[in-house]
Each structure stands twice: as structure tokens, then as C-alpha cells.
Design goal:
Length: about 180
């Protein structure tokens, strides 16, 4: 980051403040874009794109899983998600918190998974939220933590874990 000398005039102060605000807005946009990029990599079965989003130390969690490290996380996500003939993730309402070169976000998702391309009316639907953490790298923001919390699943399927008061509180307070 460039060193800026102390501003001398009000307009210089405004420019410095605007530059800081612009940098914060760009970080919010970049972090907020990470979950849609994750969805696109998953839905297009693109392992390279998925790997490019993760820091080496990524931890991925869901109801009964925990994978640590980029290689294992990508391998297991591909094994599970790419088994579907097609999937469609909609991720919205990102709540982003920035803290220098670290960030966190909550994203709400609804996903549809088609297992048999010949039977498009038979699919698995579920929704919930992603609790995420990021680290700024030389190549941009990267996931360091990704937790999928399933809130509902269509038909007779149930979430992998009950929505306990502690889990609901975790989502509300995620930073």
C-alpha cells in the first residue's frame, strides 16, 4: 500500500477519505462475490475454479463432515457435488464483515440437485446458509472457512443436524 503524506487542504482530506471508502466498498464487493463464484464452480463442475477460491488452509464443514486443507476439500466437494447430473445454487443476502485483510460473510442459499438427467422432475431441494471466513492474498480474497448449515430439505429428508439455539445464535452473531 502506498504511503500518503498528511493532507493539507479540506479537498485533500476528502480525497483521502473517498479513497478509503472506495477501497472498503471494493472489498465488500469482492468478498460478496465469493459465494456466487463458489456456486458457479459447483454448478459447472469446475474443480480448478473451486480450488482457486480456497486458501491452502481452508476448512469445510457441514452436518457430519469436516475437511481441512485445499486438496482434500476440493477432492471431497467434487466427489459429492459433481455426482449430480446438474445442480443450481442461488445464494443471496450476503452479510459481509470486513476486518483489514480478514473478512466474514453469511450467505443464504437454495439449491436444487438433479441426479438423473432423464428425470428432470425428480430432484433434491434444500436451503440454509453458509457461514464463511476469508483472507486477503496476493491473488485476492480466498475462503479460509466454509460451513454449510442446512435449514430445510424437501420431502422426507431432514437437515443433517437440528437447528439448535446455539446454531441459530452462531448465524446471528457470525463475524
Amino acid at each position: 500500500m502506498e504511503t500518503v503524506s498528511e493532507p493539507r487542504t479540506r479537498s485533500e482530506v476528502d480525497v483521502v477519505r473517498l479513497a478509503r471508502d472506495l477501497a472498503l466498498l471494493q472489498d465488500r464487493i469482492d468478498v460478496g462475490d465469493m459465494l456466487p463464484r463458489y456456486a458457479a464452480a459447483m454448478d459447472s463442475h469446475d474443480a480448478d475454479a473451486l480450488a482457486s477460491l480456497f486458501a491452502e488452509e481452508i476448512v469445510v464443514e457441514a452436518a457430519r463432515i469436516r475437511w481441512s486443507g485445499r486438496d482434500l476439500a476440493v477432492k471431497e466437494l467434487c466427489r459429492h457435488a459433481f455426482a449430480h447430473a446438474a445442480s443450481h445454487h442461488i445464494i443471496a443476502m450476503h452479510r459481509v464483515t470486513l476486518d483489514g485483510d480478514r473478512a466474514s460473510a453469511v450467505g443464504y442459499f437454495h439449491s436444487v440437485h438433479l441426479n438423473d438427467a432423464e428425470r428432470p422432475n425428480v430432484h433434491e431441494d434444500h436451503g440454509g446458509w453458509y457461514l464463511t471466513r476469508f483472507r486477503r492474498t496476493g491473488e485476492g480474497w480466498r475462503f479460509t472457512y466454509l460451513k454449510q448449515v442446512s435449514v430445510w430439505q424437501a420431502e422426507q429428508k431432514r437437515p443433517g443436524a437440528p437447528l439448535t439455539p446455539a446454531l441459530l445464535d452462531e448465524m446471528r452473531r457470525w463475524r
